[in-house]
Predict the 3D structure of the following.
Amino acid sequence: MPLELQIKSRVLCYWARLFNSKDDKISNVLYRTILSLHVSTIIVSQWISYVNNTLNELGLSYYFESQHVDNFSHFKNIVKCRLKN
């Protein structure tokens, strides 16, 4: 798999683990804070925009909208499969 696709896969997998982590974990707290600021257009997070755009390109925008991944290994497989195609 080309490097660019590996990077996209890792970013999306990190994102999925990040918001599924414990609510008191500092990375989760920071993500939720930046996400709420991004959604309210107080700030524009390039990283959140990248994640959202990549999920949209892969036809997986519902994951970003719901901010929830039930089965991480299934999500990871879908991402890798769609990136390869």
Notes: The mean pLDDT is 94. The two ends are 11 Å apart (CA to CA). The chain has one domain: 3-84.
